[in-house]
Amino acid sequence: MTTSKSEIKETSSFEKTFAGKRVLITGGLGFIGSNIAHALVEMGAEVTVLDALLPLYGGNEFNVADIKNKIKVVIGDIRDEKIVNEVVAGQDFIFNLAAQVSYIDSINEPFLDLDINCLGHLRVLEAARKFAPQTKILFSSSRLAYGRIMTTPVDESHPTNPVSMYGVHKLTAEKYYRIYFETYGLKSAVIRIPNPYGPRQQMKHNKYSIVGWFIRQALEGKDITIFGDGKQERDYLYIDDIVSAFLKVASSDKTNGEIYNIGTHERVCFVDMVDAILAEISTGKKTHIPWPKNYERNETGNYIADTRKIKRAVGWEATVSLKSGITETVEYFKDNKEQYWK
Amino acid sequence: MTTSKSEIKETSSFEKTFAGKRVLITGGLGFIGSNIAHALVEMGAEVTVLDALLPLYGGNEFNVADIKNKIKVVIGDIRDEKIVNEVVAGQDFIFNLAAQVSYIDSINEPFLDLDINCLGHLRVLEAARKFAPQTKILFSSSRLAYGRIMTTPVDESHPTNPVSMYGVHKLTAEKYYRIYFETYGLKSAVIRIPNPYGPRQQMKHNKYSIVGWFIRQALEGKDITIFGDGKQERDYLYIDDIVSAFLKVASSDKTNGEIYNIGTHERVCFVDMVDAILAEISTGKKTHIPWPKNYERNETGNYIADTRKIKRAVGWEATVSLKSGITETVEYFKDNKEQYWK
After folding, report:
1. How many domains does chain A divide into?
2. Which of A58, A107, A276, A309 has a Cα at 20 to 30 A from B93?
3. CB contact under 8 A, A161 and B175
């Protein structure tokens, strides 16, 4: 990849923002958290990672194996007041990515989802207000905060009527972050993530991170199962673009108290994503089956993000195409499958 | 008060809906709950009241003293799974009014507010889904779910950006009720209450139910303190109108999964409400002081409800003017002050 002058300028501006700074990443052994950790270590930040390593979630010590001597890893839960107060104290930046991540599980276990995704985030915010009042804190929300989609592309003022408890609690936490900014001046910002994919995503089950799961199916020579015709449009966003969005939003004070969509602008159908995987992995096959009842109820309709707000604020745009993102991802998992299949 | 033919017709239609029916009222020793209990006893319903009698809230055994032999009272908390499952089982209607009620306290004690106003309501919904799947369940939300008001009158599609944790958690619970309707077919409806007042309101402190508190100040010959010029517009709704809204919405299946504003259409300023009290209680006086900092931050701007949706759905409209509502309320508290001052 050639590096343009503007990219060099951006990189140095990031290095200036994060070099020597204390940064906490909750959920930092997970997919997005560990990728942010890698970028920050490269920029010379002093990184602490908090992760509960809950069995069904994305936390994986292998995700930071290559930087483990350059970061501090604390195994602990964001619901644990004592640990949270300790790790939050004095941080310059907090990326709050710890979460219950499955919208399917959120319906079967609503109390667990409430506990992690609301109470846990409230713990971190309370700790930040008391022990790191100057910090900038980012929250990873989800396109599922919108619920049923009325019009695309979806901008940040689209109605928010989630169809799962996961979506409701993401929305609730978003509002916590804004209130803590308005009430206490705690610098916060929220990013609504569409369908993320890329290296270091969990591959243990198919409850979320569908791209990763399909790559695994294909690599194992199994059928990739598509519900219905697979024509629903999704916004698949590659991890490098997600990381740069978090870092850019974190490094600007213009973003305080704000919510931002991120996404690609590519109109991609579910089945196109599957075809992109199969183009990389010739052993894979696809098959169509009817929508299971529980899933169809949670189908929100086509989703494409309107990302003009984040572009205006911090100049962020997605740069990785689905094709090259899938190529990178397949490459990574071919090399490291034994670390993710278990 | 004269009774028109249409009012008689309404009353008999309600009697048909609730006569002989099993009804649970959580928070049923509080202001709105106990008033609904009185109406339902009159209509021949089999009423169970669940109330935790938490010290700072509105629960007051005197509120049902005159009907205590006609209802079943259970002292217990909506967060208690065992009690909730027991009292919910087999109910035909549930009025879920138990709550942490102070938006001021919700900022100082966000975990308590989360616990009662989200987890507690989730407990009741889970119990209803499992043990009373045919029930109709109503939730008392608040105008504070809207947060800062952008345009008046406020209809149900107005943006919802609460400025207090209380408002956030009311909004969260609203979304639970809709999801339980959409996912499980549990018949639910939500009512957004503006500023309620009337007999049986708590009078122990001034953290909420400001009309009641001012009546107490006036009856005790103390100054009524107004922040700023008191020109902010509010929608003060008398309890009889609130009770009829809950009963009408509960008795129609058209309301399932819906949210309704209620309000008066009267454009009343805060200071007009004070003057209405002083017109009844000649010993009272008013005085203006500057806005305290914490309160101004939570001032949402003028609020007047657009109530066309509930009128279209079930024909509800407010019928009691501020003047006659205040007269009734003052009368009640003059007669019963020793039961509410403590």
Report:
1. 1
2. A107
3. yes
CA distances from A105 to A79, A110, A295, A296, B128 (A): 18, 8, 12, 15, 20
A178/B contact by beta carbon, under 8 A: yes
Can you give the pLDDT at residue B1?
Answer: 39
Residues of chain B found within 8 Å of residue A161, distances taken between Cβ atoms: 175, 178
Name the amino acid, one letter, at B32: I
B34: phi then psi, degrees, rounded to nearest 5: -70, -35
The answer to whether residue A74 sits within a structural domain is yes
- Domain membership of residue A331 (yes or no) is no
A279 part of a folded domain: no
Distance CA A101, CA A208 (A): 7
User: What is the distance, to the nearest Å, from the Cα of residue A112 to the centroid of all Cα atoms in its chain?
Assistant: 20
Q: What is the CATH number of the domain that holds B78?
A: 3.40.50.720
Which of B108, B146, B165, B180 to probe by mutation at the A interface, max A CB count within 10 Å?
A: B165
Residue A3, pLDDT score: 40
Neighboring chain A residues of B175 at a CB cutoff of 8 Å = 161-162, 168, 171
**B311 is in which domain, residue-wise?**
5-197+237-264+304-319
* Interval A103-147: pLDDT, tens: 888 888 999 999 999 999 999 999 999 999 999 999 999 999 999
Sheet strands (E) in chain B: 22-26, 46-51, 72-75, 93-96, 136-142, 187-193, 195-197, 223-227, 233-234, 236-238, 258-261, 268-269, 285-289
pTM for this entry: 0.93
Per-residue pLDDT of A152-171, as tens digits, reads 999 999 999 999 999 999 99
> From the CA of B242, how many Å to the nearest CA of chain A?
26
Rounded distance, CA A220 to CA A203, Å?
Answer: 12
